[in-house]
Amino acid sequence: MRIAVLRERRTGERRVALLPEQLPRLLAAGVEVSVESGAGNEAGATDDDYRAVGAQVSEDVLTGADVVVSVQPINLSTARQIGEGVVTVSFLPTAEEVPLVRRLRERRITSFSMDLVPRTARAQPMDALSSQSMVAGYRGAIVAAERLQRFFPLFMTAAGTVRPATVLVLGAGVAGLQAIATARRLGAVVEAYDVRESSAEEVASVGGKFVQLDLPPLAGAGGYAREMTEERATRQRELLAPHVAAADVLITTAAVPGRTAPVLVTTDMVAGMRAGSVVVDLAADQGGNVEGSIPGHEVMVEGVLVWGGSNVPSQLPRPASELYGHNVVNVLLLMLRVGALHLDFGDDILSATCVTHAGEVVHRPTLELLGEVG
Amino acid sequence: MRIAVLRERRTGERRVALLPEQLPRLLAAGVEVSVESGAGNEAGATDDDYRAVGAQVSEDVLTGADVVVSVQPINLSTARQIGEGVVTVSFLPTAEEVPLVRRLRERRITSFSMDLVPRTARAQPMDALSSQSMVAGYRGAIVAAERLQRFFPLFMTAAGTVRPATVLVLGAGVAGLQAIATARRLGAVVEAYDVRESSAEEVASVGGKFVQLDLPPLAGAGGYAREMTEERATRQRELLAPHVAAADVLITTAAVPGRTAPVLVTTDMVAGMRAGSVVVDLAADQGGNVEGSIPGHEVMVEGVLVWGGSNVPSQLPRPASELYGHNVVNVLLLMLRVGALHLDFGDDILSATCVTHAGEVVHRPTLELLGEVG
């Protein structure tokens, strides 16, 4: 069996699906690995590094490949070069990739989406959304510390004391918690808010102070955007405004993949911050939690710098690839039996992550999306 | 008595000598304060902020001023507008400011240099070189963390562990120790070297590992550059090379104000680092500890980013001004008696920091510099 590691095609994507140091586990399981020339360059891994651990490096990795791995979804023309029954493993946010899903079905490719790894204990080592969110959260806090023209920590000196920065984090998922932890490491005073009151304990565990808003609990246990009425969203913004105004740094992380991010902070709220403050919107790619943020750009709003994240994990390509690669290896090992490809759809992780198989879209929400379910 | 706070003239200087919150101590001592319009803008203090605490704000602060305070030395034309017997307090590195020193003497201005504050316990609250070096050290570590495309801390996740970054700091003075402390806060593994073996304990106290080189102790207790032979410098570079090569981040801080910084790291040594590594040269303004570093620029050397600092404290204008202002207030209070200017040259701090007085250059090393001492 042969696994192909693609060089990423999307602009700005600097990660690679597998790093050289991750191949020994696969090679030991009896598989061969082909790496497309240059695949690891941006993540600091050369073709020779891959060769040194026993991979083949070539310009054409698709011919003869049983499994094709990448970070971003393969593009439509690559899909055309992949044979029937071949397996692909990558991020694959189906709502944004409808034409590709149709192509994968048509080509009878068996595609797995790393976006769909269930959030169960057993699946944790494969949870690429979490691992990449962690990278984004770290990066967000570091970017804020570098852009803010004051100290994060308290400084006590012979000449006097300089107060620490106040950081407000909105959204306390994996990215938010990592941003809190990193800002705390640097000595900032950190407040955080999340609609899920249950996250108060997690916020406290990484050193943050949970902001309690005077709002009724959200009905139901479901997702964010679905539950929030416009009235509640407005009230939430009103109640958050004084916390935003008091912060030197605001980091927003409230994004659900595949959905538009909720606007938590309006331009007026940003303008209410002190001049020289910094806003980091990690949800900018999904439309933004902060009105006016632009992915991949820094804009000034009344003296406040608003940094819009764009593929933030890719800004730390080496460690992001290291974590993603671990996730991918763990998924691949689920598919192997005595060195051969063996897809057991009785496995809840494989069944949950499979999008297309044998000419069918097997992921039900995606089928609904295609309008092919009554 | 009236103190004038100047708006800084030098390109890139964003600090201000006194912030509004520092004025009450002076006003309580019975002095008046005039602030040049716009002086605090870059440090986040508006004219109204100064007015609110009781200062006057005007376009002409020199008329009627008894003491003129600034961060950078005043320029030659300002000196021409200042009357006989007026006091100036600012940084004043005399070796770089010979024409100004002559002008100050000629104008019979009494000038004090914040560069000359002695390093005694009593003078600590006035030690502006230390306070600004602390700002530079913090900034250096944060810049490195933001430029490095990997994590500073160790990350342990369900999918595996990512190793922490290794940071090497050369020079363990105030800036170096602050860089070590900040990198440690962020979880990096930190090594540090200084020619003064006595600094080993200070390095350890902020969490760094002191690098012992196999070199004979430096003869004498004096300054750095004077003692170091070229042979010893070469040997030191040879012995440092493997430490540099092993580091993800190199931060150099070996600078003595007014002297050219020693070249600790050659281009070959930088090229020996892994691609993607980051070098921060905080001594770039003094000629640089790293061959090829350029103040105010980032250059790539064989895949390694070399960041050359340029007036680094000014990159954090608010806290840098806060600390500098504290230092200046403490110096000014030495000059006051019952609300009037009273210069007691029996005070060792005032005598040490005075450069010109009553038409004479009273700072002996500066006189030597002018070639006016046999």
Automatic annotation (TrEMBL), chains A, B:
GO terms for biological process: NADPH regeneration. InterPro entries: Ala_DH/PNT_CS2, AlaDH/PNT_N, AlaDH/PNT_NAD(H)-bd, NAD(P)-bd_dom_sf. Keywords: NAD, NADP, Nucleotide-binding, Translocase. Its EC number is 7.1.1.1. Residues 4-136 form the Alanine dehydrogenase/pyridine nucleotide transhydrogenase N-terminal domain. CDD domains: Rubrum_tdh (cd05304). The transhydrogenation between NADH and NADP is coupled to respiration and ATP hydrolysis and functions as a proton pump across the membrane. This is proton-translocating NAD(P)(+) transhydrogenase. It comes from Actinopolymorpha singaporensis.
